[in-house]
Amino acid sequence: MFEARLISSGILKKVLDAIKDLLNEATFDCSDSGIQLQAMDNSHVSLVSLNMRSDGFDKYRCDRNLSMGMNLANMAKILKCANNTDTVTIKAQDNADTVTFMFESQNQEKVSDYEMKLMNLDQEHLGIPETDYACIVRMPSHEFARICRDLTQFGESVVITCTKEGVRFSASGDSGSANIKLAQTSSVDKEEEAVSIEMQEPVTLTFACQYLNSFTKATPLSPQVSLSMSADVPLVVEYQIPDLGHIRYYLAPKIEE
Amino acid sequence: KSTQKNILSYFSKT
After folding, report:
1. What pLDDT, on the 0 to 100 scale, is given for residue A109?
2. Would you state the pLDDT for residue A179?
3. CB-based contact A12:A79 (threshold 8 Å)
4. What's the CA gap between A214 and A190, in Å, rounded?
């Protein structure tokens, strides 16, 4: 028996919004420690890794490890039927071929449940090596989203250059070029508005705008985002989900031939 | 001209 309850469906909607741009379907691996998901996008350029800890749920029970393959468009249809303030409970029997989403209104006067067929998906787990990154940039998530959106207009790729002075995002194309430089903040009223840079050595890497923009669909999950970079390895874009876990996106760089 | 790398060239299947 598997049962996981979240006080607000809003958070699950945000999690789904953060992955459904990149993935059509995905396997949710449920265990005692929580719900994990790891999946590559169709073109095998990026990897999504989601972790929702069991202690982040209002109620969590998982008697046996369970892998639930879900069609994310169908899951989105179901979540659309919930109000953000509704409680959501995800339920499945051991070895079941369906999962049930139950929504309860705050006053408990409306209870709805939706059953969805599960899919058998080919599980391809990738081993992600531990890496000491040359640069880790932390910045407000809305700022990162804004930069990606703005630069997409000027080119297909963004060049990210990180030095101890700051981080620069550049794009260029037929119409011209664009450069955005962020310096480390010296003092901020709110911690989430800070830009900070941890640098071992400077890095310059090129990434496809399209994927960066998809990653920023996670912006509503977290006020801050971190970008971890080293030469010639995938970028890690990480959003901490308060009191629940994290979502990480890995993106393979573009390499000059 | 830059080439998009594949994520599988960095992470191996387990």
Report:
1. 95
2. 98
3. yes
4. 26
Cα-based distances in Å from A10 to A81, A86, A131, A221, A234:
11, 8, 33, 10, 30
Model pLDDT, residue A187: 81
Among the partner-chain residues B1, B7, B11, the one whose CB lies closest to the CB of A127 is B11
Residue A92 has pLDDT above 90, yes or no: yes
- CA proximity to A164, closest of A196, A139, A190: A196
* In the predicted structure, residue B14 carries a pLDDT above the cut 80: no
Cα nearest neighbour of A208 on chain B: B4
- Residue A182 CA to residue A222 CA, distance in Å, equals 20
The span from the CA of A91 to the CA of A114, in Å, is 10
In sequence order, what are the residues at sequence separation of 6 or more whose Cβ sits closer than 8 angstroms to the Cβ of residue A229? A133, A134, A135, A136, A137, A160, A162, A203, A205, A235, A236
pLDDT score, position A218 = 98
Task: Check if the beta carbon of residue A88 is closer than 8 Å to that of residue A82.
Answer: yes
What does the pLDDT read at residue A214? 98
pLDDT tens readout for residues A142-164: 999 999 999 999 999 999 999 98
Compute the distance between CA of residue A10 and CA of residue A257 in angstroms, rounded to an integer. 44
Chain B residues near residue A46 by CB distance under 8 angstroms: 7
